[in-house]
Amino acid sequence: SKGKGRNRFQFYAKEMNVSFAEKLSLENLLRKALERNEFIVYYQPQVLTHANTITGMEALIRWRSPLHGMLSPDDFIPIAEETGLIVPIGEFVLRSACKQAKIWEKMNLHPLRVAVNISSQQIEQPNFVDYISELLQEFDLPGHVLELEITEGTILRDINMTNDKLVKLSKLGVRIALDDFGTGYSSLGYIKKFPINTIKIDRCFVHDLPGNPNNSSIVTALCSMADGLKLELIAEGVEKEEQMNFLRTLKCGEIQGFLFSKPLPVEEATKLLVNERST
Ligand code: C2E
Ligand code: CA
Ligand code: CA
Ligand code: CA
C-alpha cells in the first residue's frame, strides 16, 4: 500500500540501519525513478517583506512515485546522498530550474531568480563549476538568475575547495545563499569570509516569533548583523502575519513560507507570477 511504501522510505531516512540488500533495492528504485522521469520540481516564492513582490522561486524536489504516491525530499534525499545518486538527481533539479527560469524570462516575468539546493557531493564534483557555467550558456541565462543554496556543513567539509569554487561561481555572477542559517556553529563574521550573498534564517527560529523571547533576540541580532555586513536575508517558514510584521520591522528583506504560498507545481507557480504582473 501507499502508506507502507512511504514508511519504508521514512524508516530508512531516520534509521539508516537497513540491510545491504534493502539499501541496494532502494538505490535501484531511485535510479529507475530518475530514468522514468518520476521526479518533479515544485517552486516556492521568495517575497519582499515591504512590497509583497516575488523576487525568486526556490526549487524543491518531489518524487511522484506510481507505487508510493508523492514523496517529500526528506523521505529520499538521505538515500540519494548515501548512494551518490544525489549528483544526477541534483543535476536534474538544476537543469529544470534553469530551463524554467528561461521560460519565465521569455514570458517577461523577470527579473526573477531561481534558487536550487546543492548537496556537498555536488560541489565536490571536479567539474561542478564548469557544469554550472555550461548550463547557464545552454539556456542563455545571466549568472545572477541562479542562486545556489548551500549549508554551513557543506562549507566546513573542505573549506579551501569550497571557497575556491564559490569564488569561481561568484565570478560567473551566480549567487550563493547560506541555507538553514543558525542551526550550525558558524558566526556571521566567519561566514563573511566566503563569497555569500544571502543568509536564510532557518524555520526553527521563525516559527515561534515574536512570542519566544530567545528566538526574537537571535533573529533581531541576525538582522542587524546581516545589515552591517551587507548580506541579504530571507526568513524561512513564515506562516503568520505577526511573524511577517515582526520581520518587517527588523528590515529582514525577504520571506518565504506558507503565509505567502506553499511550494507549488510549476503551472501554479507561473499563474502566481502572471497574476502578480497584472495587479
Ligand atoms: P529547505 O531547503 O530548508 O527547504 C524549505 C522546506 O521548508 C521545504 O520543505 C518547504 O516546503 C518547507 N516550508 C516552506 N515554508 C514553510 C512554512 O511556512 N512552514 C513549514 N512548516 N514548512 C515550510 P521540503 O520541500 O519538504 O524540503 C525539505 C528539504 O529537502 C529542504 O529543506 C532541502 O534541504 C531538501 N531539498 C529539497 N529539494 C532538494 C533538492 O533539489 N536537492 C537537495 N539536495 N535537497 C533538496
Ligand atoms: Ca533551501
Ligand atoms: Ca530550512
Ligand atoms: Ca536544508
From TrEMBL:
Coiled coil segments of this chain: none
Keyword field: Phosphoprotein
The keyword Phosphoprotein is annotated on this UniProt entry: yes
Residue span, EAL domain: 23-277
Gene Ontology BP annotations: cellular response to nitric oxide; phosphorelay signal transduction system; regulation of DNA-templated transcription
GO molecular function, one term: cyclic-guanylate-specific phosphodiesterase activity
Protein name (record): Response regulator receiver modulated diguanylate cyclase/phosphodiesterase with PAS/PAC sensor
From-to range in the entire protein, with total length: 439 to 717 of 729
